[in-house]
């Protein structure tokens, strides 16, 4: 049995018998520290065997049947939207308004994926020689493992799960070990809609279960969203397995460049949204603010004043917070250490990182000028820390923007159309924006990055491409052939 913990951990431990720790997973509410969910770890061998047995019948269903079931899934999510959003808010710590947006994105994913399947992987007849035809069709891979991140426990895994199911794959979904309750709820919505339990399976677990799924002979593909560190580990593990599909959606060290603009207030709002939404826990969050030196005083004054007004608090607080805590105390400790590292290596604090309660992972937005640092660490600080770099000309701004091994998003705020053209041409990233935040990519477009941000298999609208493989067939109703040359 798995399920939500309703009592305080101290009381509950007396009331309920517990399975041994080694076979259990437990999650906690970041905003309170209270236990949230407890349940057994997934049995990877058993789950893969079940999925392998069930998969051929699922793949043989007409596409229209699978699409219909997925539409029913969207309806199930809609019916339970409030409860689902509440659960996500509790388990991730994100504000309720943001959890509502996440649930809406899950619902929208179905129609987007149906459209994407039709546009990207539709069946086609092509001309061929000798009156035969050449047909292009797509086949599912088989059993795929979806490994999800903690920050969007429903929306991002659905970016793989929904198109994978439409294409006819069986899915074993292992959410992040930090958000099993949200993952389990999501899986139930599929089952209530009629997607067979063996075809869409929830697997509770952490890195160990992730590793087992990756290495399992019965798993034909690994659809991963998470950190570059884990993505590279998976890629290495499967380096000698070209037969297995590997899609990696990873992090970023995203730049936002602010250039000449009279609209300082708007520019500052774009910067603050980009850096601090979700307490900076978005793959697309702006980590580095690159600013023309003549703009730096007015812009930073405005950014700081906005950041000072940000309410950070628990998901259901009133008035609603702009952002919640980071996911857990280990993350808060790591971010605090990173901020101190930047400070002690030449960084100048513009707004300090404050942790009002050492027992909980709430962090204030922080801004630090790192221009003087001899070596700026090219790492993803997955939290509310914005690093500022001042530059004097546009080439320097582009060079700074590209001074990263990652390549998820780059944004320019201000500048002329010609400067944007140059920026667009030179920025190495899968998403390049102008006068728009780095966050909130459209899932009606491909979402993916270059460098350490991905392996050239973008998700979003192009997820359809990797969820099925193309099969080209030359076809004729009867064999008809003659050898015209070279015969004695
Ligand atoms: P993570 O890499 O720690 O974990 C992601 C998933 O991988 C989890 O399910 C985890 O249990 C599993 N895992 C961990 N080690 C594994 C291993 N060795 N083998 C197999 N599976 C393993 O990531 P996270 O902390 O949950 O999420 C935050 C990260 O995700 C950030 O880096 C963020 O930028 C990135 N992210 C990327 C995107 C994108 O679309 N590019 C979207 C959201 C988040």
Automatic annotation (TrEMBL):
* Top-rank EC class of the record's enzyme: oxidoreductase
So what family is this one in? Belongs to the aldehyde dehydrogenase family.
Q: Which UniProt keywords apply?
A: Arginine metabolism, NAD, Oxidoreductase
Molecular function terms from GO = succinylglutamate-semialdehyde dehydrogenase activity
Q: Which GO terms describe its biological process?
A: L-arginine catabolic process
Q: What is this protein called?
A: Succinylglutamic semialdehyde dehydrogenase
EC number(s) given by UniProt: 1.2.1.71
Q: Which residues form the Aldehyde dehydrogenase domain?
A: 28-466
Please name the Gene3D superfamilies in this protein's record.
Answer: Aldehyde Dehydrogenase, Chain A, domain 1, Aldehyde Dehydrogenase, Chain A, domain 2
Query: Which residues, if any, are the signal sequence?
Result: none
Active site per UniProt: 249
